[in-house]
Design a protein that fits this description.
- Pathway: Cofactor biosynthesis; biotin biosynthesis; biotin from 7,8-diaminononanoate: step 2/2.
- It catalyses: (4R,5S)-dethiobiotin + (sulfur carrier)-SH + 2 reduced [2Fe-2S]-[ferredoxin] + 2 S-adenosyl-L-methionine = (sulfur carrier)-H + biotin + 2 5'-deoxyadenosine + 2 L-methionine + 2 oxidized [2Fe-2S]-[ferredoxin].
- It holds the Pfam family Radical_SAM.
- It comes from Prauserella isguenensis.
- GO terms for molecular function: 2 iron, 2 sulfur cluster binding; 4 iron, 4 sulfur cluster binding; biotin synthase activity; iron ion binding.
- The longest helix has 17 residues.
- About 45% of the residues lie in helices and about 15% in strands.
- The protein has a single domain, classed as Aldolase class I (TIM Barrel, Alpha-Beta Barrel).
- Helix 5 links the parallel strand 2 and strand 3.
- Strands 1, 2, 3, 4, 5, 6, 7, 8, 9 and 10 form a ten-stranded parallel beta sheet that branches.
- The chain is an alpha/beta fold.
- Bound molecules: iron/sulfur cluster.
- The site of iron/sulfur cluster has 9 residues, from loops.
Amino acid sequence: MTDFQNLAAAVLAGNPAASDDALAVLRADDAELMDVVAAVGRLRRRYFRNTVKVNYLVNLKSGMCQENCNYCSQALGSEAPILKYSWLSPEETLEQAGAGIRAGASRVCLVASGRGPSRRDVDRVAETVGELRRNHPDVEVCACLGLLQDGQAQRLADAGVDAYNHNINTAESHHDAIVQTHTYADRVDTVRKAAGAGMSPCSGLIAGLGETDEQLVEALFALKELGSDSIPVNFLMPFEGTPMAGTWELTPARCLKILATARLVCPDREIRIAGGREMHLRSLQAAALHLANSIFLGDYLTSEGEQAQADLRMITDNGFVVQGSADELAQRAHVVETGPTIRQRGAGTGVLPNA
Ligand code: SF4
């Protein structure tokens, strides 16, 4: 057995990975890449079998943010030529979300740029969510509106928002190098407020921001501690017109190892391949599905993604099924139908044991 297999076996046996284990996976030799995928992929299969959760983003409000996150095309000072618009109408939001749901998304993520929502913004989103839930009762709704003030998380939860996304983005020790208009503690506070209101906390990171290996591992353990149920792993998209333009620190193999490290540290959490998937993983996207169990379908907030049909084909071509799809439900039913076989031999019976 390889060291990676031993490591995966230990985690499967209930011994959580330590920082050194995470660093060993992150720093694996490229020649060992498929050994890493084979080993850590066992954790993915344990908790998520062969399912892939499909999420769909709707950018409710784009650009014109007053915060200075240096990786973000919507930030103060960004000259990236992105779409800029104020709040979508509820009708347009429903139309956009409906397209993603028809394509197979089981979670819709409603995102708005800005430091955080006003009371009116929260009311607006709550109203839209109510309508979305009436039309699509089985679809999860996640909101991502920035830093929350007291009471706003509860208002969103009461409106039917299932999850709230607010990424920590990077390690606490690297945070102030990438943004100065809010603190790491501000971000953690919002994740805690969301969880406290009963919403599922969704918080992740961006790799390729100049962080060290140790800082990447630090961020993953922080997300585990924070209780993030779903962990979007973004790979920096260095937009022209932002301070990070021209920053290319990632290779496809490195991205795969980052996803493997995330899975090792947080084996039972949803690991979502997020922004930068196509650009950075390139031909390793299918291999990445053996580590992550969730992707975004279609376009990102300010950049275009892969054709949705090509992504869906990649999922099925590689033996995975979309969570909540007819194929997945049929597989689930099969598991229930076959169920465990009740023992009728060995101890307590007159029949020879299975030995
Ligand atoms: S707060 Fe959000 S929208 Fe604003 S610059 Fe930061 S990441 Fe971009």
